[in-house]
Amino acid sequence: MRALVWHGKEDIRCDTVTDPEIEGERDVIVKVTSCAICGSDLHLFHNFIPAMLPGDVMGHETMGEVVETGRGLNGKLKKGDRVVVPFTIVCGECDQCKRGYFSVCQRSNRKKHLADKVFGHTTAGLFGYTHLTGGYPGGQAEYLRVPFADSTVQKVPEGIPDEKLLFLSDIFPTGWQAAVQADIQPTDTVAIWGCGPVGQMTIRSAVLLGAEQVIAIDHLPERLDMAEAGGAITINFKEENVVERLNELTGGEGPEKCIDCIGMESHVTPAMPDTVYDRAKQILLAESDRPHVLREMIYVCRPGGLISIPGVYGGLADKIPMGAAMNKGLTFRMGQTHVQRWTADLLRRIEEDQIDPSFVITHEVPLDQGPEMYRTFRDKQDSCIKVVLKP
Amino acid sequence: MTNLSSLTNFSNITRSEGDPKVIHSGPSSRGVPDSLARGLGWFSLGLGLTELLAPGRITRALGMEGKEALVRVYGAREIGSGILSLSVDKKLGLWSRVAGDGLDIATVMTALRPDNPKRDNAVIALALLLGITAIDLIDAQATTMRHSRSAGRRRTYRDRSGFPRGVDASRGAARDFKTPPDLRHAPALAAVSPRTSAA
């Protein structure tokens, strides 16, 4: 089959690889009908996430049709089922899964010993990601093996286009969880840093959950346009002072809820000297993450407020103003998304026309154009916001 | 297997039997300018280390004895350019190489004086420098163009709300959602302040 394969920094290729095979009783093989490039794939593209190996198949936003099943599924999945494959692999049986904390499933990481060493304790296995999370081959491919399939995948009905359902695999639940864990109240101002795909989904989720005011921060005109279309007040950080503008929009008190949809690779500009400092340290391997957004959120957030972090951080971040965070009594909530906790409810909301997540797609191309699209997406060329690949 | 690095083959020992393994590799997302930038980056590191560790050999070869400290400084600069050229900020690294080439050329030109017994070596070094400057300049321009945001169309997405019923009708449409107990935070002021509630 063909698959997008990681060969090194900025080196993704559309390779011919062997087909995946069933290994466990709860495995299925999915024939991929649609998959997408995620913002976090760019962290892998840049080799900022440790423990990638040449030959790793990329991709963690996938959907398709079940074409082969293991023997232990007890009829829960059968050939021909249409499924969305969340990026988190979950056993559904461990203590964390029972709590709904699926992204820290205790049993699905097949390289638990690595995660135990680096993180202290293992987290869930993830598709198309680092070997710290199992090194499972990803779904930017023609076929995908899904372990623990009966608890991992979300069955979806026929008759709804892939484009509306695909993002149940990651960015829609990620944006939703980012907003839900902020526990948005009708009087809240929610400030969202980053108007990439996750930021766009977070804006829609905050609007649906009834925030009084949603403010979106970015610098790319097309992304700010899309944010505004979704009901956000926008701030272009290259034209306005973010802190001043947020204070102005909140009567000088700051937003109650701040959401970081950027993560470890915040934009670098001489106007924000800490970003230059972070970039220099990152190049010299003295720091893995550029936490400018985190610093800004801690500074501007209202005392007693909440900081929600769906953006991916990879390792070590420097100069976090913990004094301000502690004295202001801020609450931090973060983590990879517990996708399976939200998918059924979000599928209903798509079916009821509360939202159509396909709005975010700007490019749809065949799989073999994937390597070029990684570059287009990374360089923000051609007004690219979200790429869907068709195997 | 064709066109595969030994590292790709070696990494297969970490994969399970049913995992896909590369049989044949396709074209890379890395273009020619990107690959050349990597090559130049490694070259910078090699040259920089040589300048830093053995400046005397360089100054003797060029008839520039007494300039060892300057060569060391250039070595540090070269290492910086190399690190940048190998990073995702390769454009910056390549342009810093071009600027460095200018300094190198100006410095070597001082060794072209007629009384320098190593003048011939200096001429060869200058020719090499001019050649490498041309390569640096071409690659810096090609890389800048390849990764420029201005490539491609400019589009607007002002009609992409994502809400089939419109934004206004969608505000609060998911208020039926009850925040799970483990994700609750501070209640709204109205819920805890009688004064505000009464108002």
Molecular structure report:
- The complex is a heterodimer of chains A (about 400) and B (about 200).
- By secondary structure, chain A is an alpha/beta fold.
- Chain A has two domains: about 1-170 and about 335-390, Medium-chain alcohol dehydrogenases, catalytic domain (Quinone Oxidoreductase, Chain A, domain 1, Alpha-Beta Complex), CATH 3.90.180.10; about 170-335, 3-Layer(aba) Sandwich (Rossmann fold), CATH 3.40.50.720.
- Chain A contains 14 helices and 18 strands.
- In chain A, strands 3, 5, 6, 9, 10, 17 and 18 form a seven-stranded mixed beta sheet that branches.
- Chain A is globular and about 60 Å long.
- Chain A starts with a strand and ends with a strand.
- Chain B has about 200 residues and is mainly α.
- Chain B contains nine helices and one strand.
- Chain B has helices at about 5-10, 30-55, 55-60, 70-85, 90-110, 120-145, 165-170, 190, 195-199, and one strand at about 20-25.
- In chain B, helix 2 runs antiparallel to helix 4 and helix 4 runs antiparallel to helix 5.
- Chain B is elongated.
- The interface between A and B is large, with 89 and 68 residues.
- Strand 2 (about 10-15) of chain A pairs antiparallel with strand 1 of chain B, so a sheet runs across the interface.
- Chain B: It comes from Methylobacterium nonmethylotrophicum.
- Chain B: This is Cyclase dehydrase.
- Chain A: GO terms for molecular function: metal ion binding.
Features:
heterodimer; A: 391 residues; alpha/beta; Quinone Oxidoreductase, Chain A, domain 1; Rossmann fold; 2 domains; 7-stranded mixed sheet; 6-stranded parallel sheet; 14 helices; 29% helix; globular; B: 199 residues; mainly alpha; 9 helices; 58% helix; elongated
